[in-house]
Amino acid sequence: MSSIRNSRVSRLVRRVAVASILTGLGGVVVAPPTAAIAQSTRTVAQQGTTPSAADIQRALNAAYEKYKTLQEGKNADYIPALAKVDPNLFGIALVTADGQAYTVGDLKTEVSIQSISKVFTLARVLQDSGEAAIVKNIGVDATGQPFNSIVAIEQKKGFEQNPFVNPGAITATSMVGGANASEIWSRIADTYNGFAGRNLRVLEDVYQSEAATNQRNRAIGALMLAYGHISANADQATDIYTRQCSVGVNARDLAIMAATIANNGVNPLTKMRVLDTQHIPGLLAVMATAGLYDDSGQWLFKTGLPAKSGVGGGLIAVSPGNWGIAVISPPLDEAGNSVRAQRAIADISAALGGNPYAVSRTGVAAGQLGPPK
Questions:
Q1: pTM: predicted TM-score of the whole model, two decimal places
Q2: Which domains does the chain have, with CATH numbers?
């Protein structure tokens, strides 16, 4: 195959040389057939074809090898337990909407889910109460403030938040139904288990460490109560929120959870519906606009993927209808997002054509897309 390709390149070079001579002599030049040669070096995304299993695994392997020795960023340390996590931990998993799983790296080690949990608590509230309840009581706007900003609460009296900043997230947790803390927690845990396809557990060391240092979140909960967004017992809501952030997950768990969103709310492995289809667009919209803290806009501009990060080192992203992907790597950038995870997912998505805004032109050329007739 290599000799054939080299032969084609040689013929191209000769044609270009002849073309240069003809141009100088006033001859007519026919453009060389560069497309056939370029085709062999283009990515799946550039070719506009559906990626094969080999393509997907190759993309994961390439990203893993490229970034496994990257030494940028540092573990979160404002929660003491997170500072103790191995910074070299690195695992990548991608699960397609039809349930095919592709992995590389560490898939067994669990880290705390942290803010990624906000996606699935929001899913619970959407399923139980609908979009209007979220819009009215929390909001779906990017605040332009840090994720734990108290100023953002005061500016709008708790309105115009979103479920992925801490004021909105604690409020969302308070909106989960239940007669007591135990019932509320059971509903949240069942939701997470449904998305993951297995029973997840709370990492008690992380929960205890976080509960001992969450004074700011308790203040946020109290303010949201004062402004009427939390109806009662803000301390209980904050404690349950702290517990949900301490749930342990590995890269494969997170990829399945993301793939369940990509598959319109049906877990692609268990085939169990955990979120009605009608709620998927709203969930993805919040992930797109507020999923990566202060860098949400930069991430969306670069990849087009709805995503959510957590300070435990996890990052999930969704290519709607195609796949969900997750990376775990604890060292974070200044915005609080995993450095390796961002780069790996961006590379993999680019290779596989995951950006939902990058509409392939191959369908138009084939007459498959276009205006109604």
A1: 0.86
A2: 2-41 (no CATH), 53-352 (3.40.710.10)
